[in-house]
Amino acid sequence: MSGSKVAQNNYEVGKMTISSLLLTPSPVLIIGAGLLGTSIALRLRQGGVEVYLADVSPIAARLAQDLGAGKATAVAAPKLVIVAVPPDVTPAVVADALEKYPKAIVTDVSSVKQLVIDLIAVHPCANRFVGSHPMAGRERSGAIAADADLFAGRPWVIVPHEKSGRTAQRVVQNLAVDMGGSVIQMSAQEHDHAVSLVSHLPQIMSSLVAGQLTGETADSLQLAGQGLRDVTRIAKSDSLLWTSIINANRKEIAAALRRTRKELDDFIKAVESDGDLSTISRLIALGNEGVSRIPGKHGGAPTRYTEVTVLIPDQPGQMGRLFTEIGQIGVNIEDFTLEHSVGQPVGRAVLSVIPAHTRELEIGLIQRGWQVISVGEEQR
Q1: Residues 121 and 163 sit within 8 Å (Cβ to Cβ)
Q2: Does this model's pTM top 0.85?
């Protein structure tokens, strides 16, 4: 930010004057009052930015308004338009915004970029458009799932094209910073290849695994553990939205699926063949190697944490009590999962902490009456 103070009013970004707690200029029009659009709006409103909301569903726009995300009314001259609609309709909505608001910078938050860039780069007003994509979301959709902190610490990809103007790029980058995102710049092709691996393929695999459960008996499913819940969590995602995403990025996704199919075929042959344990071991080890490359907290290098497991009675208020008392102990929780045992009136809270703080946390919890049952170290 070149030493500028975010809280200072009335300073310049290109030729645009900003009067808010954030760098993003007022007023902002957000088209699409779903999870991403409403989450962006909530964050902007917290910073004092004037936000207007539009959606093909007036009910969705009014719900976002009721949540405090802005005004579900028209605006004549927005300075920034954010298009937050499914990928299959994003190019048309972006083009319409460029024509309808001739002085506005326009960006989109679609999870597929090449489709948008290819169609908008030839538009006569293409200099006012810069693509972007926040790498954040939930399995729940709609305004009701929105969170002003959804993007905090998450990558926010900026995808300019050859005609994107400097002012447009600066404004969109400032938006990402205002959202608390970690700014990364990529080409559309680089972005679509990356998300096919880190986002789209995991969704497909999760859905396929969950789909195998539909014909199983209730007795079999009672054996489900945390591993199954972890793998299938995102299988609850919106099927219509993901159909649009997969169709828009089908070339990159098809390539990823072909690579996965080859390894799956190798695995099937190894399982069907007597004694081919080396192939099974190799493929499992390959997964270990891949997991070790996933960035750690805030996008940094993978970090080794110690896991402290605590039994939690399945009663109202116990989770809140646990975290309140961890706060009193003064140990930061780096990650958290909650597991349940079949037929047991307790859950297991698995708390990931920096190894140097493990003993302090254990002692503090035991002194406060908690049952600490295990400690293990795991690379995350």
Answers
A1: yes
A2: no
